What does this fold into?
Amino acid sequence: MTTTWSGSGGLQTLERPAAESPGGMLRGAARGGIANLAGTVCTGLAGVGVTWLAARALDPHAAGAFFAATATFGLGVTVAKLGVQTSLVYWPARMRAVGDLSRFGECLRIAMAPVAVAALCITAGLWFAADLLPGRPDLVRALALFLPAAAFTDVLLSTTRGLRSMRPTVLLDRVMRPAAQLMLLVLVWAAGWGEQVFAGLWALPYIPTALLAGYALRSLKSTLRLDKSDETDFTPRRFWYFTTPRAVASFAQMALQRVDVLMVAALAGLAPAAMYAVAGRFVILGQFVNQGVSQSVQPRLAERLAVRDTDGANLLYRQATAWVVLCCWPLYILVFTYAPLYLGLFGEHYENGVGVVRVLAAAMLVATACGMVDVVLAMAGRTWWNLANVGLALLVMLGVDALLIPRSGAFGAATGLAAAVLVNNLVPLVQVVRGLGLHPFGRATLIAAAMATACFAVPQLVLWPLHPGLIVKFAATGAGAVAYCYAAVRLRTVLMQGGRGR
It folds into this structure.
């Protein structure tokens, strides 16, 4: 095997071909994707359930404080992970591509020790700085205690995915933890306990999840053949060269999802922050679907790019995009259409967020069509490009938020997030097309988008000038759903073979 080195600190291109055929690659990705999507349904429903309970069990001020505290917690967890979760998918996948996993243990050790130190430092920082943060200091402190467990959970499960095992992620992070959180919060609601208990029990399931994730990784590692063939290009220096920009990009990516809630809380108040968090909760459902599909594709994508198999990488990228569009476009179109009903589920305090819902739904339609562009860049080793893209998107969001939130409250924050979402997807899409020769617009993607538009958007556009009642709208949606399912079954072969669109 010949290898090339791209320069100081760069990433090697491995020329040994991967043994997996395109058909086997798609079947493997599909199995992982379907399992992850099933788990994603549980995660999404539990997430909406938690939001509903927070909106119903707590007053708007307390709900806003809870959402602000969870936003701070999420940012802290992201910083603590130091970006290694992507590296622990990327490097084991490269090792598998050349059949040399002899340095897997070293890879895991040099990632875990810094994460442990960072998690403890951030926990201490949040505890002592809680009074300086937006929202309620007691809620921030209650969540901070569980931050190391949350960070280790994600890092350990990322490693199992790098070894092509999706089951621990699906069972532990997609099903067990969200279900436990929801059940504990139902108990809090029924017992009438306060906000601090609500926050603490929301975070408690991270502890058993982290322990079980460690057990799953240990069991998986015991089955590996760690033969040494001197083929892998792994070194600690290259690991951190890949990881460093990803660490900053991961924080910026999480900031895109969380900082706006904190800014609304600081600039407009906790009640508007609660409304914004509730109105935008549907976005998380789509993000979970995208994450579930991406995680199943990531290891194979890294392997294909490691051996310069552009056709295989394109096939995976287009297929993954088609799946996400097939699942998410109906969701976003329906939420756009029925925004008042969606918000009414959470109570009368949140019914003024229709504009927020529709701005975000429109932006997410565009983002979904771009596919997992950030994952493609990362698995191609372009983590510095990723960092620049996310940094630009974050600056756009912060600028728009600072300008509009004082005037427009939650709607201003939604406008800022929508602008950032477009930047964070369209800019890397251009880079992927021009720099890597890949794009997500295969035949399956275009068919999935056309099906969703024809079955869900067109009927509502036809009815809109007539101002029909809800019964007529529901009938049109029901007919569209039947047609959509029928078309998906009839076209299943095309939808499952995204590469045929080339």
The longest strand covers residues 3-4.
